[in-house]
Amino acid sequence: MSTGALPWEPPPAVDVEALPAGKWWDAVRAAPTVGERALEMLGDATGAVIQDKYGTLYWLVAVGSATSWHLRQVRVLAELADECSYLGVPPNSWTTPPGTHWCVPLSVDHYLTDAFKLWGALAEADRAVLGPVPQGRQTCYRCELPTDEPVIVDVEHGGSGAGRTIYACPPHARTYQRDPVAEAAAMRRALDRGRTR
Ligand SMILES: [Zn+2]
After folding, report:
1. Ligand 1 geometric centre to CA of 178 (Å)
2. Quick check: 76 pLDDT over 60?
3. Over 97-139, what HEC string results?
């Protein structure tokens, strides 16, 4: 297969290079257990996939096609108004582990993944691996309306060790993520790290 016919390829590099999301593609990051299940479900429908040394999987999707997703253990790397996300992209020829590699190599037939199909596979994998979304319907901390797609945005720890979970509806979860309060951001990062291990 001629590499000249590839729909896209990373700029020439000898190592993993941080490339900005939102320019050629957005990236969908999934924790290993959910990601591998979704990859199986997608079968031939998957596009190119990068896997990092921790087993985390990254799909490339059309810019803007996945920005309102809220799935557990899944994050969308996209260009936001106030920040830019970068994805570590390995050279084209790196197709074997260990280390960051193309788990599904770029080819004429494999580049962007259809975001709708990817969402379906990840949502199904999410339920299969993690069980039902906890406690179902919850009240958004901000608009105080019930939501069927609660997103856990924070956990406040009380003195006794019991935590109070804070939920948001998907639109307000995005707002909450941009809250400048450093403490909340730090806690969220800690939770993120915990979830992807
Ligand atoms: Zn809300």
Report:
1. 14
2. yes
3. CCCCEEEECCCCCCCCCCHHHHHHHHHHHHHHHHCCCCCCCEE
